[in-house]
Fold BON domain-containing protein.
Amino acid sequence: MSAADTAEYRIAHLRDRLASEDIAELGIRIEQRGTGVMLYGTVASADCRAEILRIAQEELAGLPLREDLVVVCADAPDHPEELS
């Protein structure tokens, strides 16, 4: 099995873990870029982001990992919207 095949297998396993564990995250994109892996998307909280990164680091240990995970602010507005 080549290094590329191994990386693809590990990425697939990461996707399975993110979908099946308590985090149940399906909206994160995971792509192989050269010898590394890129995670990107939006998450609901900083805790969710931290858990995704922890799982990714476990599954992809030894592979260069880059991420662009944005935490979405779902707080209620603190002032009314002004329409003109």
Observations:
- Strands lie at 29-33, 36-43, 65-71.
- The longest strand covers residues 36-43.
